[in-house]
């Protein structure tokens, strides 16, 4: 843990990073404290851009709305002193930290002008909760202003109770700013909540079924990135988790097969891909392992992804099969627009082979 290098609190900006899923009273106490130590606060909304999950139920725009409503309930004038940026998960610490720094620099430049930004005094505001707070060490250029955990609240516990109570708040009311409680009640009446509740129940049942294992399971999957004529093959998931999201064709490794055989099998089972096996093997240009411990809510899941670049003049015919509800060829330049509908980290897998974000991480828009 870094020492507080600027204890007098003389900051122009404090950077407060979190997921705020949802924004609770502990978060509000932290934010109020930050606003007493700096003229303005840049709120970094993490895990932005992806499809809704039980871990990240709310869009960046919805979380911004929660925070602004909560702060307005405390002091309406201070809402203008909040600046929001959204940053996606990258599962690569240095890349994520660079994206945060870039997003914050952009917010400061927009607020103060590029010339004044260089002189701005910027600090990092946060609480060392557990190993998940290690990211606070990734910004040595920002003096750390450490804080206690107000009320010992945990957003994961709030989400769990909310789902267990099927959208009812009950005693959760006392843990949330009043405007956030109103937001959650309204959200629980929407179809999006019903979809999340079904996924929550699936994942809880999945965990119960594996609870008797002598040690935590590690799952192995394969995924196929197939490009042809400037388009990429995607399937729409027909089952949980992630029902309805777009994904790469793939699935679990069978007990007696190699990963290179499994990816061809899954590609055929889900898309009825008609190209001969030998032609696919010859078009394989790259492969990579994606093994971040938090990449899947099903548990520790390692996926081996293979990139097939087909040198054809026309798209092969495909048809949805097995647990794929639909299949389509998507122009490569349209993939980023599907970020909010993509399963797990599949957009990052696509970026690994297709460089969708370019030299620097693409910004995450505040979409609803």
Automatic annotation (TrEMBL):
Keyword Ion transport included in the entry's annotation: no
InterPro entries the record matches: Cyt_trans-like (IPR004821), NUDIX_hydrolase-like_dom_sf (IPR015797), NUDIX_hydrolase_dom (IPR000086), Rossmann-like_a/b/a_fold (IPR014729)
Domain Nudix hydrolase per the UniProt entry, residue ranges: 214-353
Pfam families: CTP_transf_like, NUDIX
Single GO MF descriptor: hydrolase activity
Record Gene3D superfamilies: HUPs, Nucleoside Triphosphate Pyrophosphohydrolase
Entry keyword set: Hydrolase, Nucleotidyltransferase, Transferase
Domain of life: Bacteria
SUPFAM superfamilies for this protein: Nucleotidylyl transferase (SSF52374), Nudix (SSF55811)
Keyword Nucleotidyltransferase belongs to the record: yes
EC number: 2.7.7.1, 3.6.1.-
PANTHER family: BIFUNCTIONAL NMN ADENYLYLTRANSFERASE_NUDIX HYDROLASE, PHOSPHOPANTETHEINE ADENYLYLTRANSFERASE
NCBIfam families noted in UniProt: cyt_tran_rel, PRK05379.1-5
Protein name as annotated: Bifunctional nicotinamide-nucleotide adenylyltransferase/Nudix hydroxylase
Species the sequence originates in: Cupriavidus basilensis
Phylogenetic lineage: Bacteria, Pseudomonadati, Pseudomonadota, Betaproteobacteria, Burkholderiales
């Amino acid at each position: 843990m870094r020492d507080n290098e600027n204890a007098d609190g003389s900051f122009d900006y404090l950077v407060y990073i979190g997921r705020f899923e949802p924004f609770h009273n502990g978060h509000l106490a932290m934010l109020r404290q930050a606003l007493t130590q700096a003229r303005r606060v840049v709120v970094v909304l993490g895990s932005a851009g992806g499809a809704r999950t039980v871990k990240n139920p709310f869009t960046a725009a919805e979380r911004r709305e929660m925070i602004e409503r909560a702060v307005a309930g405390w002091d309406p004038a201070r809402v203008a002193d909040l600046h929001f940026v959204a940053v996606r998960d990258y599962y690569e610490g240095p890349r994520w930290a660079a994206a945060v720094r870039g997003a914050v620099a952009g917010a400061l430049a927009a607020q103060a002008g590029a010339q004044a930004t260089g002189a701005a005094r910027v600090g990092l505001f946060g609480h060392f909760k557990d190993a998940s707070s290690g990211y606070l060490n990734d910004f040595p250029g920002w003096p750390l202003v450490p804080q206690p955990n107000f009320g010992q609240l945990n957003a994961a516990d709030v989400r769990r109770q909310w789902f267990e109570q099927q959208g009812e708040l009950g005693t959760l009311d006392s843990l949330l700013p009043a405007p956030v409680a109103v937001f959650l009640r309204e959200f629980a009446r929407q179809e999006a909540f019903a979809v999340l509740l079904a996924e929550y129940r699936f994942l809880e049942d999945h965990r119960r079924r594996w609870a008797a294992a002598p040690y935590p399971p590690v799952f192995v999957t394969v995924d196929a990135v197939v490009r042809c004529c400037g388009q990429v093959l995607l399937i729409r998931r027909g089952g949980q988790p992630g029902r309805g999201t777009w994904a790469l064709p793939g699935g679990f490794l069978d007990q007696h097969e190699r990963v290179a055989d499994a990816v061809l099998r899954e590609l055929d089972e889900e898309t009825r891909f008609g190209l001969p096996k030998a032609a696919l093997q010859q078009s394989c240009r790259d492969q990579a392992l994606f093994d971040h411990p938090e990449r899947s809510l099903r548990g520790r899941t390692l996926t081996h992804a293979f990139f097939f670049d087909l040198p054809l003049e026309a798209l092969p015919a495909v048809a949805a099969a097995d647990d794929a509800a639909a299949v389509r060829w998507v122009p490569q330049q349209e993939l980023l627009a599907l970020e909010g509908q993509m399963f797990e980290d599949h957009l990052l897998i696509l970026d690994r082979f297709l460089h969708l974000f370019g030299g620097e991480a693409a910004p995450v828009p505040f979409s609803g």
